[in-house]
Automatic annotation (TrEMBL):
Coiled coil: none annotated. SMART domains: HTH_MARR. Signal peptide: none annotated. It comes from the Bacteria. InterPro entries: HTH_MarR-typ, MarR/SlyA-like, WH-like_DNA-bd_sf, WH_DNA-bd_sf. The lineage of its organism: Bacteria, Thermotogati, Deinococcota, Deinococci, Deinococcales. Residues 23-163 form the HTH marR-type domain. This is MarR family winged helix-turn-helix transcriptional regulator. Pfam families: MarR_2.
């Protein structure tokens, strides 16, 4: 999504044709890649949601809470495209399960902010690890030089996206083993 403060005014049609064409090429390539790995990733995600007894909406809310830090139920409602009463009910279920907590908003004492608990962060961490495993199992049989080149290119893309509000990304550097 193009930020509203971007020189294009936040509108795709205001970007130069070369930018739009390159983005469309990448979009099609990403769709093809997604199709190749989605069955592995989604199968694992579905199994995990069943094991954790989480709905897709609850998982989406957990991801939005991680991205937003402390947010109001109204903001969570907008981010998840749920009605405010449905988002409120969803938050209540997450709080009862210990995955989220409510706290007073220091900027408006009449509001409550919703935040992930350590248990909620652990659920998302587990999902993240399983998601990465799906990618690793897809890319491991490929030539290392091809995978490294793709990693460098993706890191360059992420480097440009991050200042635009895409959020922090994990390092692609391999983890050291003792």
């Amino acid at each position: 999504m193009i930020p509203p403060d971007h020189p294009s005014g936040g509108k795709l049609e205001n970007l130069p044709a070369e930018h739009r064409e390159a983005a469309e090429e990448l979009g099609h390539a990403m769709k093809q890649l997604h199709r190749l790995i989605s069955s592995r990733v989604m199968r694992g995600m579905q199994a995990e949601l069943i094991d954790l007894d989480l709905s897709f909406s609850q998982m989406t809310a957990l991801h939005q809470l991680r991205a937003g830090g402390g947010i109001t139920v109204t903001e969570l409602s907008a981010r998840t495209r749920l009605s405010v009463p449905a988002a409120s009910h969803l938050v209540e279920r997450l709080v009862q399960r210990g995955l989220a907590g409510r706290e007073e908003n220091p900027g408006n004492r009449r509001e409550k902010l919703v935040r992930l608990t350590p248990a909620g962060l652990e659920v998302l961490g587990s999902m993240d690890r399983n998601f990465v495993t799906g990618y690793v199992s897809t890319f491991a049989p490929l030539q290392p030089a091809t995978v490294r080149a793709a990693t460098q290119t993706l890191m360059a893309l992420l480097g440009e996206l991050e200042p635009q509000g895409a959020g922090p990304c994990e390092s692609a550097a391999p983890k050291e083993t003792p």
